[in-house]
Amino acid sequence: MKLYLVFFLLLITFVSASAIEGIPGQDYRTDEFIISVHNGVTLTPFSIAKSGFSSTGYTSLDRLIERENITAIEEYYPAPVRNEFLRDVVKRMYVVKVGNGDNLESAITAFGGDTQIEFAEQYNIHHLCYVPNDPLIGNWYQLTNIEAYQAWDFIRGDSTSRPILGIVDSGVYYDHPELAPNMWINSGEDLNGDGQFTSADINGIDDDANGYIDDVVGYDIAMNDNIPFEPTPTHGTHVAGCASMACDNGAGGAAVSWGARIMAVKCARDNAPEYIYGGFSGITYAADNGATVINLSWGSAYFSQAEQNVINAVYAAGVVVVAAAGNDGVSTRFYPAGYNHVIAVASVNSSDHLSSFSNYGTWITVSAPGEGIHSTWDHNSFASLDGTSMASPITAGVVCLIRAANPSFTVDQVKARLMATADTIDYLNPNRVGMMGAGRVNAAAAVGRYLFPRILLVSDSTFLIEDDGDGRLGPLDRFKWIANFSNIWANAQNVVGTLHSDGQFNLIDSVADFGNIPGSGGTGNNVSNPFDIRAISGVGAGDHTFTLDVTASPGYRASFNLTVNVTLDQLGFPVNINGEIDSPPLVLDIDADGSKEIVIGANDNNYYAIENNGSITPGWPKPVSGSPSGGAAAGDLDHNGTIEIVGMSRFGDVYAWSADGTPLTGFPRNCGTLMYSTPVLGDINGDSTLEIIVGVYTNKSIYVLNGDGTNFGNWPFQGTGYISGSAALADLDNDGLPEIIYGDIDSTIHALNADKSEVAGFPRKLGGPIRITPSVADIDGDGHLNIIIGTSNGILYALDYNSSTMPGWPVTLGAAIASTPSLSDIDNDGHLEIIIGCNNSNLYAFRTYGQPQGGFPVHVGGVISASPVEGDINGDGLPDIVVGAFDGNIYGINSQGQALPNFPIPAIHNGPITCAADLCDLDADNRCEIIFGVKVAGNNLEVIDYRVDLTNTNFPWPMFGNNPRRTGYYGSFATGIQNTDEIPVAYELAQNYPNPFNANTIIRFSIPSAQQVKLTVYDLLGRQIKLLGNGLMTAGSHEVLWDGTSDLGTTTTSGIYFYRLETANKTFTNRMTLLK
User: Fold this and answer.
1) What CATH number did the domain enclosing 650 receive?
2) 0.70 exceeded by pTM
3) 751 and 725 in one domain?
4) pLDDT at 137 over 70
């Protein structure tokens, strides 16, 4: 009898090629069909080819067999069936074979009309429901989306191995390292009892009498053997891994069911792995051998009563069947997913939108992730596939967790729990409302909703209890934090929250008791005992993430991320300017009202003047003809004792305004068609009036304008190369007058006298195009000035006053130089350092003869085209470097190349920072503010309030060009106050004391003989602030007290001032710092 059964098993699993190819696109077998007989009817199977035909025992059927040329009738499932529900269905089903060329439809109709037959129908062929995808991409995002990680907090480990998951598919590579530990082992065939499928289990005997020989891990129904491997990686192995993988093993991936045991049931032939032929025989095998959940990632558009009967029997046996909804993108039913008692699964993507390929409709039960699903592949690899084929086993994995947590649940209870706990996603799919089932499956809710609390963070709030008065959270500020929770599942007892910071805060009180929070929507908070936190002094600006760990009874634990923003922005900033800012700010008290203003150009073709509280200065903004990328300069152009602002536009226009925005007569003045450079102001001919110097790109010219907009002398000067950078002004030849120094894209550096003649040694060709502004100072202390300039091919030069190259120079930086150098003695050794940024995102600092400063270069997060600025912003007596970069951060770096506390500081509205910042005490609070623009529209003018008290105002290069006139010169000349000769031994102008000073300071000087003496205080712009003395004085030492007031009796603001001693034939100047 055993041989007879095996023989017929072979018959039902073989399908001829003609059955696949005879009718293109056909989804059923063309040479056989299925019948089911009524209860009490017993047919005798036969095969004319094997044993001939005598009689079925029923005359009417015998006549049909002869008339319709029936060649065989075989049992649908010839193996014994132990489950009574299955046995009652499948043992009444037979496969009827029709002779070649005969009419299948006629035979089905004829048999269906016989009184012995319950029904007759076509034998459907099913297709796999997947879409191949790139095998190199993907991750297990689906575990996050369906909250598998939270589900594993409720149930995992050995308890999850209770369910047996039948993977009825194209086969499973059960030796895959991520599947092997989770494979179902048929104990009746595991001869040595080691729980593994080994050669020791093969004896050629059906030891458990289930009709299949040596079926240790499952069976190959299609090929009738006990090795259910896929013939080639196709589908089934991937499907298995979607549902169950070895978890917590430190390798590979993970699957939702954690430990559900996989029964491999192969129902595809080796020569056609994409077709499922014996699928319902496979379902029968799985259910009859202990599977509690069966996954079917295949199907067709054809209904079959035989298949529905099998599903009914499996349902009656207590087995949950999960099936793919199909990949045709239609709403019509797809079978077996469309049968009664089957969980039909549609596919969604990672954002819970219905997959374009997925079927949908009111017949769908739930949805699950089915795009880019990473899972097991071949014997030892992974791949990503798309399809409802993937969504189905993910759902089957959730079903396994439900069964593991609730072993007594019926099929209907499992389905109800799955649907009741799914997340609603109709609002994300407005065109498919009600057609994606109950929602996207949620593993955590499915296993935990009725057993454990589920606490959600509804909101949180902070409030300052100690700050500096600006109402914003900053360094050393103290605040309290309240969290509001909702509990949507079971009651939560003894809820406690513990807060953890990122290390930049001191947690004064990090534990809060939330008490008991009722389930089903109850709420709780820690208003009565909020968390208490203080920011450390070096806290970084931007968002900071805290972790709030919550515990509750029974057995609940969760973590939440809370975010707090730390800002160093001055109150009233950032200012929302419509255009991108691609120019350096200019900060000074333009209207003599005792407070500083910020003047800056924006790409909305306007110049803005902004007060220190962020409001617009009356009379501003001022429109210009094009983007004012060069920024502005300031000085007293018309000798009326007030400041004028000089601006530009890229279309070659020069503008001049008074402090209230009134245009000066003669402006705007057009100088060409394209201009990028910042205007520079200086007295180049010694007549005590300021000239305006601008470079024009297109006509390669340097223009010098008078204060009324007319050309100075016989200017402009016609050069040979396009001019991109600004000029510098400095007295290279010691003739008492500044020269105009500039570079061009023709790789030439020029130094021009007021009469347009070149200084001796100039012009000088360098090794690459020059697009930046030169900087000038006596860096080697020899009494002659030096020029620092860089080229677009990354070469940095230091030139002597006669254009010769200084020893140790040039230095190659390795990338284009778009940053104008600045000059400061950052280590207080008495020698200036050269600080410059580069397109390789490095900030460099060099000593006199090209040696790198210790700790440099410093690599930052973006290209540096901005000019660095320097000032002692942290109060340690050494100038610090501040520079912006294209990554949207402001960097603060000390003389050793180390980041200052709180830095880098990100711009509020992230975008490139392309131009120099300005350092000053903007609001007279004895702290340095950092003013900069961001090349992005809106919230783009920022003022950082660096919260360290200033101990001095050692700001050697605080802005682009070093001073409001933008001369690019390191020295007292920039103020218009100039030493004439070296100080004779008999003369002395001492440093004031104290310096810096708050209210009063004493100035001491000595003269060798009685003579007329004048002592005057000036500001950075060369304006007289206070005449301290003017008259005949005797020889010897003298002291004068300055109380910080002006000639008008008003109190002056904090800042740098110069005091000048004028004798009969000598003049001396020193600087001092007033702090308030």
Assistant:
1) 2.130.10.10
2) no
3) yes
4) no
Is 18 among the domain residues? no
**What are φ and ψ of residue 1015, in 5° steps?**
-120, 120
| Residue 290: CATH number of its domain | 3.40.50.200
Q: Long-range contacts of range 509-517, CB-CB < 8 Å, 24 or more positions apart?
A: 512/483, 514/483, 514/485, 514/550, 516/491, 516/492, 517/453, 517/455, 517/485, 517/486, 517/487, 517/491, 517/492, 517/552
H or E segment to which residue 131 belongs: strand 131-132
CATH number of the domain that 998 lies in? 2.60.40.1930
Q: Are residues 546 and 632 in the same domain?
A: no
Residue type, 932: F
∠ CA 409-411-415, nearest 5°, is 95
Between CA 867 and CA 877, with CA 871 as vertex, the angle to 5 degrees is 150
By mean pLDDT, which of 18-27, 206-215, 324-333, 837-846 is the weakest?
18-27
Q: How far, in Å, CA of 528 to CA of 567, rounded?
A: 27
Between CA 796 and CA 62 the distance in angstroms is 104
Which burial class, exposed, middle or buried, applies to 559 when counting CB atoms under 10 A from its CB (0-12, 13-18, 19+)?
Answer: exposed
Three-point CA angle 959, 965, 969, nearest 5°:
70
Number of domains into which the chain is organized: 5
Q: What one-letter code names the amino acid at 1011?
A: Q
- Enzyme catalytic residues: 169, 235, 389
SS3 388: helix
What type of residue sits at position 116? Q
**Could you tell me the two tokens for 76?**
């649908």
974: pLDDT strictly greater than 60: no
Range of the domain at 102: 28-124
Structure tokens at 727: 């000029």
Range in 49-58, 106-115, 165-174, 568-577 the model is least confident about: 49-58
Spatial separation of the C-alpha atoms in residues 613 and 359, rounded to whole Å = 60
Domain identity same for 630 and 758: yes
Question: Same domain, yes or no, for 842 and 889?
Answer: yes
338 and 257 within one domain: yes
805, two tokens: 């190259």
Domain match, 929 and 795 both: yes
Q: Is the peptide bond before 668 cis (omega within 30 degrees of 0)?
A: yes
In a domain, 309, yes or no: yes
Number of other CB atoms surrounding residue 450 within 10 Å: 15
Residues 1034, 925 share a domain: no
- Rounded distance, CA 723 to CA 409, Å? 83
Round to whole Å and give the CA distance between 650 and 582. 12
In whole angstroms, give the CA distance from residue 822 to residue 834.
6
What are the residues whose beta carbons fall under 8 Å from the beta carbon of 937, sequence distance 6 or more?
A: 577, 578, 579, 580, 603, 604
Mean pLDDT (whole number) for 930-943: 96
Q: Which two tokens stand for residue 941?
A: 């003018």
Up-side HSE of residue 985: CA atoms within 13 Å toward CB?
A: 0
